[in-house]
Amino acid sequence: MIAINNVLLVDDEQLDLEVLQRFTPWEQLDMAIVGAVHGGGAALNLLQEKHVDILITDIQMPLMSGLELAEQAKRLFPHLKIIFISGHEDFQYAKRAISMNASSYILKPVNDQELLNTLQLVREQLKYEREQMKKEEQMDSSIPLLQNEMMYQWLRGTIEYRMLYHFHEKWGIIWDGGQCCVAIIEMDDMAWKLKAFSDDQRRFAIDHVFRLISDYIHVRQLGIYCKTGDDKVVILMGGCKLEPAETMQNLVDHVRNHSNLTITVGLGSQVDSLQRSPLLLPESLRGAWNEDVCRQMSGNHDGADRGRNR
């Protein structure tokens, strides 16, 4: 589907506005006029009411010049494309237009072909910017999935720690690889707690708990984590700013207070530095699984004597 670019026309001369509206092939340019006003104040109001991609404005107008309008509009909408139209070939005007990164500075009487060429160029610029924004959004949405898979493969031993570290470094993910420990989170008694649920309800309940856990980790910057194939979460808690056992107990309480499900957390021993000794991680990982050596917190008070930490 072709994107339609919205255009706002501003000129204190009614005849000039009508000429621009009537004799420019807006539809062929994939553009639509969303407003044609006589002054800067009205233009600013309309800019805040409607989405505008391109502002075409006269420079010399009473009360507020086109340059003043453009400066205020750019502060509000930095990505707005601006085309100036002027009846005066004044270098100072052109200089200010250039400083605002204007798309063009066209002299009156407007040459139809010059305006057409300018609008075609602006259309291509907007198309390119949208494509770049879409690519960035797609990349941003895929990074958490890539991070999850990278960490999961590292925990399984199929990739080395340095690959995970370089991935975090490349995408600006905060993780120092210093002192850390492993926490393993699993949901309690899902089979019978969700027995009466439909498949969709069951998936929603489980996803809700995962969102509670991931939001808790992100807000407190606890470290990096991944979901495993068996609906568990492994957290690699970094640094020593927080007491791991207390932090995980708070997470257990947080999930219990905001969900019908509860979780149990197994906490392994601390490792001094993964950067210096990446092979120490399995020791903490095994500890998080081993109920005889790890610290465990459970939100399932009813089953306190059954299984892990019960």
UniProtKB/TrEMBL annotation:
Q: Which residues carry this modification: 4-aspartylphosphate?
A: 58
Q: Which UniProt keywords apply?
A: Cytoplasm, DNA-binding, Phosphoprotein
- Keyword check for DNA-binding: yes
- Does this UniProt record's set of keywords contain Cytoplasm? yes
Provide the GO MF annotations for this entry.
DNA binding
Q: Which InterPro entries match?
A: CheY-like_superfamily, HptR, Sig_transdc_resp-reg_receiver
Biological process terms from the Gene Ontology for this record are:
phosphorelay signal transduction system
**Where does the signal peptide begin and end?**
none
Q: Which domain of life is it from?
A: Bacteria
Residue stretches making up the Response regulatory domain: 6-123
Q: Would you tell me the protein name for this molecule? A: Response regulator
